[in-house]
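Dear Dr. V.,

Thank you for agreeing to look over these. As mentioned in my earlier message, I'm a first-year student in the group and I'm still getting used to reading structure tokens, so any feedback on how I've presented them would be very welcome. I ran two proteins. I've put each sequence directly above its structure. The first is here:
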Amino acid sequence: MGAWLRKKAVDEENPDDVPTGQISAALIAEADGVTSPSEGTTEVEAASKPDVESTTTGPADLEQALADRQALIQMCLYALDRARSGGVVERLEHGLAAIGVRALRPDGERFDPAVHEAGGAVATEDPALEGLVAETEVVGFADHDRVLRAPIVIVYAKKAQ
């Protein structure tokens, strides 16, 4: 059973067995098979030198990397749809934006059935609002210029007389 599941006091257990959220350099070095933490630092620095060759060998690796990227994006969108915390949603959207996947919230834009999905309408007497997106029900996403998911929106419609 992991230390974080135990209910015993720290004094009764090994004090080093309490999770801190941090991993010491000695533990990382030990896991890497390095005898001292400074050697681990040297290896990392050596690995980041420009003369180190890429491990990518060809088009098949690129295709696999792109397929993996798409799978990860889909997993993030799945998590976004189920996230209950605004902070988690914000963090996922920020991370996706960093790789070129942006959220689509077309509030106030003219409704375009080619890029928006109508989820409903709200009546308005203001002719200037007619045909504009009143609210985004479900956020859409685009990977650079390619729409992954169209946003589902509520559209202002002329009030029936």
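The second protein is here, in the same arrangement:
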Amino acid sequence: MRHVRDNQSYFLYLIFDADTCVYVGETSNIFWRVVKHKDKCSSGSVIYLQEHTEKEEVLKLEKHYIRMLKPKFNSRYCQPDQLELFTIGKAVGER
């Protein structure tokens, strides 16, 4: 429960069902997110977690894995021509 109270860690998580990635996400409260995603999981689902100290790193990894794996429950970053409104830390067009 340490991660829920002090919010010093960020998690990248991948939900796999039958050896296929169905969702990629990031959170600072992994316990709550797992509960919220129970509809994406079956009894045979496996959730892989990776803990990080920097939110920016987790966001970059989330984007990378969504684009690479194209999970069925993710819509963000899956389209090759998708307009991205934000980059890490600033809006597109900001310098």
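From my reading of the second output: Residues 55-69 form the longest helix (15 residues). The helical segments are 2-6, 30-36, 55-69. Does that match how you would interpret it?

Kind regards,
E.
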